[in-house]
Amino acid sequence: MLEDAPTVPCMTPFSVLDLSPITQGSDAAHSFRNTLDLARHAERWGYRRFWLAEHHGMPGIASAATAVLIGHVAGGTSTIRVGAGGIMLPNHSPLVIAEQFGTLESLYPGRIDLGLGRAPGSDQRTAQALRRNLSSDPDEFPRDVQELADYFSVSPRQAVRAVPGTGLNVPLWILGSSLFGAQVAAAFGLPFAFASHFAPAQMMAAIEMYRSGFRPSRDLAKPYVMLGFNVFGADSLGKATFLATSMQRAFVNLRSGRPSQLQPPAEGYVESLGPQERALLDQVLSCASIGTPEMVREDLHNFVKQTGADELMITSQIFDHAARLRSFEIAADALAS
């Protein structure tokens, strides 16, 4: 069901996480065009995967119908793997997800990944509107993961079949921003993607827990860790610092209960913040590189050395699409060298 973890060469594999950002004054249709354009560039630059994240009710994120957008990207590219980073499983029936991703795998064989998270990807009111029971039972997510995995298996004991889905090789990943996801990934013997790009506090503890508790499975013989990392690369430090303020504004707005479209960069933004907001940004940007190509290269290689990451998932929330492309190109050049 899951592809074998690749043998890691001296070059660390690198992938893209895209939230299909809706920039201020724009709309979702424009975001989708930019997403496909980024995916086509990423394919040429050597990125292994292009993942899209499920969020709901967010004015600055257009990837709510994640499976639909994955199909759009896969149909417009040729070789890059395309997947969910991730599907928030508590929002959905596992059978529906099995059918959706069975359909995608049937359309684009050998190119579809399915990352699974347990957060709703929304506020509580929006989560309720998604019409799934909001359970506080910590065992609910592992049960849903097992049910989903069973739909992809070929077993005479399986009373309900996913059509399409049954018997298809759709690699499952467990996503997490805490120790819980590490435990689930280790118990199932699945690869683990940690959201260090926005929740780095427990990163090292989660990696250790996952690796030490990993149980080999028929899908994966040894632990495989992918870590999120923010890159704001430009040809000068001043420009990179300026471009990063769009993401900083969006993050502060979100944590302040005022989610917004991705706003233009702003001179002096960080300097205008209070100590609490600055501390918040310092934490989230501990897994980030803001700078020139040489600085990005050094930061990325140091991060891999520090964590032992098997793969990096690069994200770059930049307002201007051309500047965003350049940032991803800088990251690709850094990791390919």
Characterization of the model:
- This protein is an alpha/beta fold and 337 residues long.
- It has 2 domains: 160 residues, Luciferase-like domain (TIM Barrel), CATH 3.20.20.30; 110 residues, no CATH class.
- It is 42% helix and 15% strand.
- The protein is built from 11 helices and 9 strands.
- Strands 1-2-3-4-5-6-7-9 form an 8-stranded parallel β-barrel, surrounded by 9 helices.
- The N terminus is likely disordered.
Largest sheet: 8 strands, parallel, barrel
What class do helices, strands and sheet pairing give? alpha/beta
Number of domains: 2
Order of helices and strands: EHEHEHEHHEHEHEHHEHEH
Mean pLDDT across residues: 93
Terminal residue distance? 32 Å
Low-confidence stretches: 1-10
Number of helices: 11
Strand percentage lies at 5-15%
Radius of gyration over all CA atoms, rounded: 19 Å
Shape: globular
Q: Provide the helix percentage.
A: 40-55%
Q: Superfamily at the CATH H level of the largest domain?
A: Luciferase-like domain
Oligomer: single chain
Proper CATH architecture of the largest domain: Alpha-Beta Barrel
* CATH fold node name of the largest domain: TIM Barrel
The count of strands amounts to 9
CATH hierarchy class name of the largest domain: Alpha Beta
Strand order of the largest sheet: 1-2-3-4-5-6-7-9
Notable traits:
2 domains; TIM Barrel; 11 helices; alpha/beta
Q: Summary?
A:
With 337 residues, the protein is α/β, with parallel strands linked by helices.
How does the SSE layout of this entry go?
Layout: E1 14-18, H1 28-45, E2 49-52, H2 66-75, E3 81-88, H3 94-107, E4 112-117, H4 124-129, H5 140-152, E5 172-176, H6 179-188, E6 192-194, H7 203-213, E7 225-233, H8 237-255, H9 275-284, E8 288-291, H10 293-307, E9 311-315, H11 321-335
Parallel strand pairs: 1-2, 1-9, 2-3, 3-4, 4-5, 5-6, 6-7, 7-8, 7-9
